[in-house]
Amino acid sequence: MIMDQLFSHVVYWTWWIIGILLVILEISAPGTFFLWMGISAGIVGVILYIVPELAWELQLTIFSVLSVATVLISRKYLQKNEENQSTLSQRGKRYIGMTVVVEDSIENGIGKVRIEDTLWRAAGQDASKGNKVRITGIDGATFQVERVSTE
Prior knowledge:
Blueprint lengths: L1 H6 L4 H17 L5 H17 L5 H26 L17 E9 L2 E6 L2 E7 L7 E8 L2 E6 L4
Parallel strand pairs: 3-5
Antiparallel strand pairs: 1-2, 1-4, 2-3, 4-5
């Protein structure tokens, strides 16, 4: 009875306001979670606009199902695209596989290599200045390198 009285005043624009509030909440707490719930609330508002006599139980069910479905679908899509992320803020990753020249001898596993106009710390097998090494990975700002055979 109490829920019937509470939801008797819910109309389509109520769901639209809830949707807008959820999208605003998403802006202050990013993570694409509230965004999809806000869109779901907007869709329930559209459905309620088309079918104004829709029971509140069905409204909440539609909102719940849409929210869960859109969040799960978005997470699956976003995880799929994580592999295609830009290396813009990870400058060193673009150098993996490149062959470079040792600038400061790699002794006891540590030395420096020159890449373009910058000296980078390198870790790997000992190598003399002038030897060529291949970048195999990066750990922080230190490249992992291996000697290139000069046969």
